[in-house]
Amino acid sequence: MSFKAFTLANLYLLGLLALTVVLVWKVEKHSHFFYLAFHMFLIFQFVMSFIESQNKIILIIIFLFMVHVYLFLLTLNAEINSASNNPLYLSNQANLFFIKKLFVTIYSIDGVYEGYLTNWNDHSCFIHLPTLEGEYPSGKIRLITKHFGKEFVGHGVISSRYAEGIGIRFIEEQEEVYNWKLLTGILNKKGIMPV
């Protein structure tokens, strides 16, 4: 079978592949469903090929492929659920009123930025920057938030941008006594959660 004949016979598969790649690349909320559907279809095709040929090499390939799909799906779900990739607001709701705003100051090589947290966990956060004019901060940053009468400091890198906001992944090397993990622990104990 030539490449052209294969392509024409499997246009629906190529369309699903293109849609899956775009959704996974953009870390969209429902991308794992398309990823799973695409790969389940491929596994079905492999199983049908195995039934026709009874070739044990195909069976080994199916097993290895299923392990790969499962591990990548776990990674994809972790990325989708990461606070730095999930701002918890839509682009047209960027100036939404939050019940309790946790204000932060970001220091980067590009300058100082003011904003507030919209989503957070122990390893990352998303910050809305309502007064952002010009360029987003870039590179490594230092994040300071004042809460409970203390300054909590986190060091991280910018991992995403979305509608007047940035996602930050924290670097584990946090020498400060009042660091990001301590703040998230206190917020969780007090019942303060992202909206």
Précis, in short:
The chain is of the alpha+beta class. The chain has helices at residues 3-9, 11-25, 31-53, 56-81, 180-190, and strands at 103-108, 111-120, 124-128, 140-147, 150-161, 165-170.
Which features does this protein show?
6-stranded antiparallel barrel, Thrombin, subunit H, 195 residues, alpha+beta
Provide the fold topology.
Blueprint: H1 3-9, H2 11-25, H3 31-53, H4 56-81, E1 103-108, E2 111-120, E3 124-128, E4 140-147, E5 150-161, E6 165-170, H5 180-190
Antiparallel strand pairs: 1-2, 1-4, 2-3, 3-6, 4-5, 5-6
Helix pairs in contact: 2-3, 3-4
Please explain how this structure is put together.
This protein has 195 residues and is an alpha+beta fold. The protein has two domains: 3-81; 86-190, predicted glycosyltransferase like domains (Thrombin, subunit H), CATH 2.40.10.220. The chain contains five helices and six strands, in the order ααααββββββα. It has helices spanning 3-9, 11-25, 31-53, 56-81, 180-190; strands at 103-108, 111-120, 124-128, 140-147, 150-161, 165-170. A six-stranded antiparallel barrel has the order 1-2-3-6-5-4. β2 (111-120) and β3 form a beta hairpin. α2 packs antiparallel against α3 (31-53) and α3 runs antiparallel to α4. The longest helix has 26 residues, at 56-81. The protein is elongated, with a radius of gyration of 22 Å. The relative contact order is 0.11. The mean pLDDT is 84.
